[in-house]
Amino acid sequence: MTEPCDLSAIEARRLIGTRALSPVELLESCLARIARTNPAVNAIVAMDADAARRRAKEIEQAVLRGEDQGLLAGLPIGVKDLQATANLRTTWGSLLFKDHVPSADESSVAGVRQAGGVILAKTNTPEFGAGANTTNRVYGPTSNPFDPAKTCAGSSGGSAAALALGQVPLATGSDYGGSLRTPAAFCGVAGFRTSPGLVPAVDRAAGLSPFGVTGPMGRTIADAHLLLCAQLGEDKRDPFSSSDWARIQPALAGIDLGRVRAAVSPDLGCAPIDRHIVEIFRARVAAFRPAFKEVQERTPDFAGVHEVFEVLRGVHFVAAHRERLEKSRDLLDRNVIDNTERGLAHSLGDVARAHVEQTRLMRRFLAFFKEVDVLICPAASVSPFPHAQLFVEAINGERMPTYMRWLAITYAPTMALACAAAIPCGVDHLGLPFGIQVIGPNGSDARVLEIAHALEQALAQKKETARPVPPLEKLTV
Prior knowledge:
Helices cover 36% and strands 15% of the residues. The chain is of the alpha/beta class.
């Protein structure tokens, strides 16, 4: 891969700024890569190439005049199809909105556009982001760029697959139970689950639910950080929004891992993990252990997390989809129906108890970080599985009690209101991407990004832990 579309976002932006790369040239390279690879993976599901070309040309001319066009000037952006984009089809992966074209951008998309990002395309997602396998009745499934017979995970699967293939240098994602981190792991790219409110979310049905967040995705943490800087802001329509965004610096400064205390855990003490993934994780820990000041094998106390997640996720789905279930059940996919109905089955007592237990869990989690700086664990519990399979039914021969349980390795930190970076860490026992999470407490976004960036750079120095690249020659038409 040596085309302009294969450049990191950081490098492409630098070259645009020095007039060594034209935004038009970069865009055309991305469009050519989409044309060659998208039929095999179906990551890009809506696109306005003509509008993108006009915008790229405008930015090119402005750069030639010496005008500052913003942090993302000229970089093509993929936007997850859960975020409204002005004049570009936005479906939320649902038949209810299959022909919907918004007149205005969602707030963080507006920030990306204002920063000079060229909104090129929408990336695929399961209906309303419900599920860790990217498929829906509007666009169909998105495949894994390393093996088209397997899933890219979800719900930010289209973004992850598009990034891995160089279809776009940056893409947006969102994360509740692992919707950003799992696809990053399955596709060999990077992503960042932000603390609640860091990127304001003003369109949630229930504004007082902090668990679903918007975050950036890129091929590296440095690229994801660049996009995050354009998504940041303060908006009191999101009750969790605050001035914490000001702690994120315009560029990653670098941190000495030799001063960092890390805790490592293969399963967070609560998550089912395939035995092969555990073995690979332990081997990778042995490889990067010398880089840190201290590595402790320990985990926070996640007691009760499964019930907390099931109940509070149910509250979220009832708030967002009860009316749709009552009026348009036949147009909804299985996951939305199932989650909403299970949510309706919970009592007020169940909900109250879940809130109390979540608060206790969060406080235990915060106390844990008085003794360590970050927590590192796998970013996915299994290797990528066939995309015809909706979810993981069993791990190590043990049947999962719910369709979400295989995601406990990502939803447990969510329930603690953590921020978390997912970074590539070589390949697994099947030769498919393997990723790890670098996790910190709520509000530690800047520090977690620095540590994840430094660790990613260290991993990149060795073949067995470097970011894998998909077999482009097997995917092109």
